[in-house]
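Any chance you could type out a protein's amino acid sequence plus the matching backbone structure tokens because I've never seen that pairing?

——
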Amino acid sequence: MDSAIEVVTEGAVIRPGTVFRDDRGRVAQLHGIGIQRVGETWYAWGEDKAAGGTFTAVACYSSPDLVSWRFEGDSLSIGDGDLAADRVIERPKALRRPDGAWVMLLHVETADYSYARVGYAISDTPAGPYRYLHSERPMGNISRDIGVYQEDGVGYLLSEDRDNGLHIYRLRPDYFGVESLVATLRQQARSEIGYESPTLVRHEGLYYLFGSDLTGWSTNDNMYSTAPSLEGPWSPWRPFAPEGSATFDSQVSVVVPVGTGHLYIGDRWQKDALDTSPAVWLPISLADGAATLEWHDAWNPEDAFG
């Protein structure tokens, strides 16, 4: 084990700003994570950055407690076309359709980031392997960082389009493409249009949408907006971590309901060491339309979420 790499877990404790090790003792490739709970087991999919920025695989892990992680294999591996080794595959997010099938959505790119498409893959099981289907520019719009949301069996795609804004799309019933545009959010008084790395949760009848400013590999003060419905009206964007902290030097990947609370999962991207980029996992408070993220050197999910 590389002693220079701090490990995120110690017993049942998570230490933000370090890395997870899987059951093999290797750094868990949970970058740009997607995560879902199936019964008593958490499944997580991440960008395998062993090759740096270009595609190696989408790795899958499982956990009973969000602390210890078992490697379940590669959900997607190098292939032809969109899955070639010179492509970039980011933000793997999986949803379970009402019929039980699992559909994975991906940000699919060329190395120069000119492709800007969302890809779709399917599997009978959460771990896969997934069968890659196709990619698209939803409704003709570019699509880079993505997120997903699901409610009452309906799937939604969150997609960053810096030409026009951050889109919320309704997926087709088979989840293999976009059916309609629900809303588009833009920044206020900023030089750039959208927010990237979007994630969405609903709590006590209110939607909370989170995103990161467009600053490349550098971190920034991530923002959130709220609305009573997906169509809006959406509130002005505002920070949820202390201003100037650059969201504790992280970029949001997902905010996920856990037990009685919510979990913030972010990445600290290290451009020259993407495979060992640290994780920032922290409880986040959502209450009365306000989202608040506080720092903890170490914390226990069972204590935080019940």
